[in-house]
Specification:
187 residues, alpha/beta, 5 helices, 8 strands, 25% helix, globular
């Protein structure tokens, strides 16, 4: 897992103050450059994901290994989750209610057609993290979804997708999170 640090702003904020006591210029102590920044924690409830439970956990782990600004954790018993994951017989899709919140549907139709389940889980979680579909697209793009074909098993976001999620959840480092339109993204 990446080490979560707050740099940039603090490193740029190093200020030298001058004191004229005794004709000597005195530098202020340097600011701390690496202060741990807490990731935004999003919880998910995969209790309704049936046979997809382990792939949902793996999809969440992929995002946790890929980005620093957000962390996906299973919800504790009785805890209200940001993300609900359910299995159904339709096509995989995500219904976002706001950035970091919504429902992921692990649709069996795509699995029956031969699409990779871990890629589906990571892709649909990507929608909850604010990423749109990028179709058509190559297999190297997680958000290309089904347009990459059934032979594509890459479940990892590319550098641009990682950067976009970091920007969505980076808070003060990159400014306010963008508005995410609530809606259904069908892949």
């Amino acid at each position: 897992m990446h080490i979560r640090t707050l740099t940039g702003g603090l490193a740029a904020a190093v200020v030298v103050s001058l004191s004229l006591t005794g004709g000597q210029a005195v530098a202020a102590p340097p600011a701390v450059a690496d202060v741990p920044a807490a990731a935004r924690v999003l919880t998910y409830d995969a209790s309704g994901s049936a046979e997809f439970r382990s792939v949902v956990d793996r999809g969440a782990a992929i995002w946790n290994e890929s980005v620093d600004a957000v962390e996906l954790r299973p919800a504790a018993t009785g805890q209200r989750a940001n993300i609900r994951v359910v299995a159904d017989n339709g096509w995989p899709r995500a219904l976002t209610t706001s950035l970091g919140n919504g429902t992921v549907y692990m649709g069996r139709q795509a699995v029956d057609q031969g699409y990779n389940t871990i890629r589906i889980a990571a892709h649909e979680l990507g929608h909850i993290l604010g990423l749109p579909d990028r179709k058509p697209g190559p297999c190297s793009s997680l958000m290309s979804g089904s347009s990459a074909g059934t032979a594509c098993t890459n479940p990892n976001p590319n550098a641009a997708e990682k950067a976009e999620v970091e920007g969505n959840f980076g808070g003060a480092l990159v400014g306010p999170a963008p508005a995410v339109r609530a809606g259904v993204t069908v892949d």
